[in-house]
Design brief:
Blueprint lengths: L2 H8 L3 H6 L1 H5 L8 E3 L15 E8 L11 H7 L3 E8 L4 E6 L13 H18 L4 E6 L4 E7 L2 H13 L14 H11 L5 E6 L8 H9 L3 E8 L1 H4 L6 E6 L2 E6 L3 H25 L2 E6 L4 H8 L8
Parallel strand pairs: 4-5, 4-7, 7-8, 8-11
Antiparallel strand pairs: 1-3, 2-3, 5-6, 9-10
Helix pairs in contact: 5-6, 7-8, 8-10
Length: about 300
């Protein structure tokens, strides 16, 4: 067995996260929220931007660039009208990354903790390449680390280092002192209005308060939930005895036991319904990412035209 290959699927490695910059280059950059500009004129804006997008048409005013006149509207309304454009401007990107106890698991591919860190790393590199500020909140059940958004490569590297250093190396070392709700409450304090926020978690630890916390965060920001799941969590094998590591040693189950299968399906169905309701009530867009799939491949299927998510 290749120990290095095993480590790559169970441990978050800083150098591996840095190398994901190459994967980010292959993906389209996320689009920014437009900021209103008066018009497209001859002078270059002092504000950094990514281009101009059409906003609306209004009556021509002295000083408007004649090249922006909409001649069709002018002819129809018998009065000069000018096209207004929006300048696409960078905005803060905040990555909320869950490395809690429930993510110290995988039946295939890589641990959910590793996939969460990889997704966060690729999104961080994408945001930096787009000229956005990048920040993060990393929590692991025991601690919560906050890094405010900044537009520097050093900031991304510091976030990646936090992801690598905050991973638990065993279930025994994990606790449940910092939860998803704790991170969401902290994000509301840290996030600037208009931020693009990604919540990367398995969402097994949601509570009755989670929908309202997500909704409060989404009220003034664009929030996307990337839910990391393992195939075994959604459907058990039809037969065979399996062991799952626990804090008190391995837990064995018999997949051929019909009563066990039924109880498992009921539990999964209940959680899936509860999670769907959570996202519906909060108005947050969500997508599943499997542990067996490369995070770059997952993001490629999630990213829409121009790199817009959701």
């Amino acid at each position: 067995m290749d120990v290095r290959a095993s480590d790559a699927t169970t441990r978050i490695n800083l150098q591996a996260l840095i190398r994901l910059q190459a994967d980010a280059r292959a993906l389209k950059l996320p689009s920014a929220r437009p900021a209103r500009a008066r018009q497209a004129g001859l002078q270059r804006s002092a504000q950094r931007g990514r281009g101009m997008a059409f906003a609306e048409v209004r009556l021509y005013q002295p000083g408007d660039d004649i090249r922006s006149i909409d001649w069709r509207v002018t002819a129809r309304r018998q009065a000069p009208h000018t096209k207004l454009y929006e300048e696409e401007r960078e905005r803060p990107v905040l990555l909320i990354c869950d490395l809690g106890p429930t993510l110290f698991f995988a039946s295939t591919g890589a641990f959910k903790q590793v996939r969460c860190a990889q997704l966060a790393a690729i999104l961080a590199w994408l945001a930096l390449m787009a000229g956005d500020q990048v920040g993060g909140i990393v929590f692991n059940g025991s601690t919560l680390n906050v890094q405010r958004p900044a537009r520097r490569k050093k900031s991304v590297l510091r976030l990646l280092d936090t992801l690598a250093s905050q991973q638990h190396t065993s279930i025994e070392s994990a606790s449940s002192e910092t939860t998803l709700d704790t991170a969401l409450a902290e994000a509301r304090r840290v996030a600037h209005t208009g931020s693009r926020i990604f919540v990367i978690s398995d969402f097994l630890g949601i509570s009755d308060n989670t929908p309202s916390l997500l909704a409060a965060l989404a009220r003034h920001n664009s929030v996307s939930a990337l839910r990391v799941v393992d195939p075994l969590e959604l459907e058990l094998p039809q037969s065979g005895r399996f062991a799952v590591a626990g804090t008190e040693g391995p837990v064995w189950f018999d997949a051929s036991n019909s009563r066990f299968q039924q109880a498992w399906r009921e539990k999964i169905t209940h959680h899936e319904a509860r999670l769907e309701e959570c996202f519906r009530l909060s108005g947050v867009w969500a997508s599943k990412v499997s542990t067996h799939e490369s995070p770059a491949v997952s993001l490629k299927s999630i990213l829409g035209p121009g790199g817009r998510i959701g």
